[in-house]
Amino acid sequence: MPDDKKSSVDEVLKREKLTKEFEKEKRISEQKAIEQAAAKLSSQSQLNSEPTKTSKFITNIDIAFSQAKADLRYYFLNDGNYADEFKRLFVENESIFKRYGITSQKYLEYVRESFDRYKKIHDMMPLEPMKPKHFKYVEDSISELVRMFNQRFGK
Predict the structure, then answer these.
(1) Are 41 and 58 in contact (CB under 8 A)?
(2) In whole angstroms, how large is the CA radius of gyration of the chain?
(3) Cα distance between the two ends of the chain
(4) How many angstroms separate the CA atoms of 145 and 109, rounded?
(5) CA gap 100, 147 in Å, rounded
(6) Distance from C-alpha of 108 to C-alpha of 3, rounded to nearest angstrom
(7) Quick check: 50 pLDDT over 50?
(8) Neighbours of 47 (CB within 10 A)
(9) DSSP assignment, residue 78?
(10) Structure-model confidence comparison of residues 86 and 55, the more confident one
(11) φ/ψ bin of 77: left (φ > 0), alpha (ψ from -120 to 50), beta (otherwise)
């Protein structure tokens, strides 16, 4: 009987250690994402000497996109200018998303799930590249989400 208690304590300690390591790795990856976004922003500002529409501050959506681009599940953000278009859609509807508690990470998850739904409906391969027709479906899905929020909860 004492051996059972010892093994469960060991398991709990291992779990806590793994959780701490995971949190540490998560903080490091977030810091790297922030640094990458800052480097990208500074390189853009060096290329464009005149002021642009983009802000000089790193926003949550920039951090979320830089993290997502490193994640294989969001492979389609690396194709073409789809990442910029999804970012534009988020910024256009940011006030609505904030009102209903949708963070930039949740928004990206919704985008990925919409694209996965489209691939499943049309029997596409898992890593099929995004095309304008697929983007239109996801864009319509986001617009439908915003419309449903407004309809359900009012303005």
Answers:
(1) yes
(2) 20
(3) 61
(4) 13
(5) 13
(6) 46
(7) no
(8) 8
(9) G
(10) 86
(11) alpha
CA 41 vs. chain centroid, Å, equals: 18
Residue with tokens 């200018």: 81
Q: Is 77 helix (H, G, I), strand (E, B) or coil?
A: helix
Taking the CA atoms of residue 26, residue 103, residue 143 and residue 134 in that order, the dihedral angle to the nearest 10 degrees is: 0
Q: Residue 105 to residues 64, 108, 116: CA-CA distances in angstroms?
A: 6, 5, 16
User: Are residues 82 and 76 in contact, defined by beta-carbon separation less than 8 angstroms?
Assistant: yes
DSSP state for residue 82 in the 8-state scheme? H
Position 68 pLDDT exceeds 70: yes
DSSP tag of 3: H
- Tell me which long-range contacts 36-41 makes (C-beta under 8 A, separation of at least 24): 36/66, 37/62, 37/63, 37/65, 37/66, 40/66
Cα 7 from Cα 142, distance rounded (Å): 49
Mean pLDDT of 82-92: 88
